Amino acid sequence: MSAKMPVGVLGATGAVGQKFIKLLEDHPWFEVTEVAASERTSGKLYGEAVSWKQVTPMPESVRPLEVRPCTPELKCRIVFSGLDASVAGPIEEDFARAGYIVLSNSKNHRMDEDVPLVIPEVNPDHLGLITVQRRNRQSNGYIVTNANCTTMFLAMALGPIHKAFKVEKVFMVSMQAVSGAGYPGVPSLDILGNVIPYIGGEEEKVEIETRKILGTFNGKTVDLAEFPVSAHCNRVAVEDGHTESVSIKLAKKTTVAELADLLRNYSGIPQQLHLPSAPEKPYIVMDAQDRPQPRFDVNRSKGMATCVGRIRPCPILDFKLTLMGHNTVRGAAGASILNAELLKAQGLLE
Length: 350
Ligand SMILES: NC(=O)c1ccc[n+]([C@@H]2O[C@H](COP(=O)([O-])OP(=O)(O)OC[C@H]3O[C@@H](n4cnc5c(N)ncnc54)[C@H](OP(=O)(O)O)[C@@H]3O)[C@@H](O)[C@H]2O)c1
Fold this sequence. Notes:
Blueprint: E1 5-10, H1 15-24, E2 30-37, H2 46-49, E3 67-69, E4 78-81, H3 85-97, E5 101-104, H4 129-137, E6 142-145, H5 149-165, E7 167-176, H6 188-191, E8 195-196, H7 202-213, E9 216-217, E10 222-223, E11 229-236, E12 242-250, H8 256-264, H9 269-272, E13 283-285, H10 294-297, E14 306-313, E15 319-325, H11 329-345
Parallel strand pairs: 1-2, 1-4, 2-3, 4-5, 5-6, 7-11, 13-14
Antiparallel strand pairs: 7-12, 8-11, 9-10, 12-15, 14-15
The protein binds NADP nicotinamide-adenine-dinucleotide phosphate.
NADP nicotinamide-adenine-dinucleotide phosphate binds next to helix 1, helix 3 and helix 11.
C-alpha cells in the first residue's frame, strides 16, 4: 500500500488541472487518486475526457480514474482546485465545510478576511489565518489560496525588498502569456502579431492581492500593506511565462548592487525545509542586459523560481527591474503544491 497522501484535483481537465496532474506525477508525498470536473466530463475516464495539452505524456496512473462531479464525496482529505472562477467559490466552500483541505488557484476566496493568500517564501505566517477560519466557519476543513499568476512574481520579488527597505510605491506593466487564459483561451486571430492591452479584472487583482500578501497578520486578519500598486496588464503572443516591468519607490536608501545581492542570496522557509517543490534559489538574478526572456528562462528551476533582471535606477521612482516566471507552474499549480508541502511540514494536513 502507498504511504503517500491521497489527493484530489478539482477542475482536473482544465489547463491548471492538467498542470497539477503533471506536477504531482511521482510526487514524494502526494498521490492523485481522485479527479473531478464539470457535468461535461464527469462519468468518463480521465484518459478519454481530457484533451491533454502538456508536452509530456499523460501519467498512466490517472488514465483509468473516473472523472467525478465536484461534490464533497471524494475519497481523500486534500483537494487542489483549478476550477473555473465562475463556479469555484461555492464548490470550494462546500468542500471546506465538509472537512476537506482546499488549495485553491481561483480568485474567489483570495481576499476573504479569514483565508490565507500565501507565498511560502514571503508570508508563511499568514497560515495563522487557518485557525481563525476554522473557528469562524466551525469546520475542521479550510481553504488556502495562492496568488493570481501575475501577482505571484511581483509579490514574490517585493517580499524581501519590502522587509529590508519598505516599499512605498509600485508601478508595473505586464506582458502576459496566452496560457494564462486557459484552453483554448484567446483566439489565435486576436493574439497573433498583436498585443491586447486589457485582461478583465487582472489589474485590480494585482493591485489588491500584492498588498494582502505583503500585509501584516495581526492574529485575526491581515492588515493590507499601505503602499499603492498601479498595474497595466497586457496579453502578448507568448505561450508560457509572464514578464513584468516594474518600478518601485522605497522608504530606505539602497543601491542596485544591494538589491541584487538581497534577492540572489535570499533563502525562505521552503528552501530551509527542503520542500520537494521548492526551487533551490527562489530568485534567479540575471546580469545579462537582455534577460530574463520567457523563451529561454521560463523553465529555469522547473518553473518554480522568479527570474529577475535589469535592476537599475528609475528617474521617476527609485529603481526599476524586470521579472519573469512560469504562469501555470509557479503562477498556479506549482504554487498550490508548494503551499500544501508547507502545510504538511507544519503539521497542518492532519
Ligand atoms: N491558466 C493560468 O495561468 C492560471 C493561473 C492562475 C490561476 N488560474 C485560475 O485557475 C482556474 C482555472 O483556470 P484554467 O486556465 O485551468 O481554466 P480552464 O482550462 O478553462 O479549466 C476550467 C476547469 O473547470 C472545470 N469546470 C468548469 N465549469 C465547471 C462546473 N460547473 N463544475 C465543475 N467544474 C467545472 C472544467 O471542467 P470541464 O473540462 O469538465 O469543463 C475545467 O476542468 C481559474 O480560476 C483561473 O483564473 C489560471
